[in-house]
Amino acid sequence: MGNTSRISAVIIAYNEQEHIARCIKSLTGVVDEIVVVDSYSTDNTVAICTKQQAKVVQMKWQGFAATKNAGNKLAEYDFILSIDADEELSNSLQNAITKQKKLGFETNVVYKFNRLNNYCGKWIRYAGWYPDTKVRIFNRHNVFWKGEVHEKLNYHQFCSEKLLHGDLLHYSIKDKQDHIERIHKYNKLTSKYPNRFLAYLAAIITFVKLYLLKLGFLEGKLGYQLCIISAKAKIWR
């Protein structure tokens, strides 16, 4: 198997001025290229990216998977670090990636991280939100993104997985209203339960699973809020 130490970071963005500077800063000195695929932001996203010397390519929004796939094709290097604008590499993850670069990235290996999500200002480690492991470094010839809501990597051929130490920090939901609005947005894009009984049953099961079995109660009031909204999402139309 061949390997390489060169890597491109690919970020898709639309009106991400609140987060993207932090994201790019965490990549600087770790990757060899930063590509931002911007879907014609109307805020200062492009100016921020340009100031931080990221390569910005603007194109019409094609959906999460298609836009990420397009960004991968625009990268200079075959190995891609896929990261969202509201994420950043922790110091320990920066060190782990830098260490792996020195060893070389293997063609038939994908590299995954544990993702730590921030909910309303609190880092959440229970309620099924951690470690939330994601594959984020890969050879673009081996994989492709698929799916319009929660896009996932699909593989052209078998690849083994390697976990790199450190957390990918995700500034997920800023407040209660943001959580509710996201739920309604995703519900419009996903299939509904065929009847109300099944929807309410799913809501009860979801709450019990997240709050009790996944120890969401250990997160205090925010843990309850997170779990109850996630449960109500099953019955909201």
Q: Which radius of gyration do the C-alpha atoms yield?
A: 19 Å
What integer is the average pLDDT?
Answer: 95
Number of strands: 13
Termini, distance in Å? 49 Å
Number of domains as seen in the coordinates: 2
Please, how many helices? 7
Structural class: alpha/beta
Q: Please, what is the CATH homologous superfamily of the largest domain? A: Spore Coat Polysaccharide Biosynthesis Protein SpsA, Chain A
CATH architecture of the largest domain: Alpha-Beta Complex
Topology as H/E string? EEHEHEHEEHEEEEEEEHHH
Specify the biggest β-sheet.
9 strands, mixed
Just give the CATH class of the largest domain: Alpha Beta
Reported by name, the CATH topology of the largest domain is Spore Coat Polysaccharide Biosynthesis Protein SpsA, Chain A
* Proportion of beta-strand residues: 25-35%
| Inertia-based shape | globular
**Helix fraction by DSSP (H/I, runs of at least 4):** 25-40%
Low-pLDDT stretches: none
Architecture blueprint of SSEs:
Layout: E1 3-4, E2 8-13, H1 20-27, E3 33-38, H2 45-51, E4 55-58, H3 64-74, E5 79-82, E6 87-89, H4 91-103, E7 105-106, E8 109-119, E9 122-124, E10 134-139, E11 143-146, E12 152-155, E13 160-173, H5 176-189, H6 196-213, H7 220-232
Parallel strand pairs: 2-3, 2-5, 3-4, 8-13
Antiparallel strand pairs: 1-7, 5-10, 6-13, 8-9, 8-10, 11-12
Helix pairs in contact: 5-7, 6-7
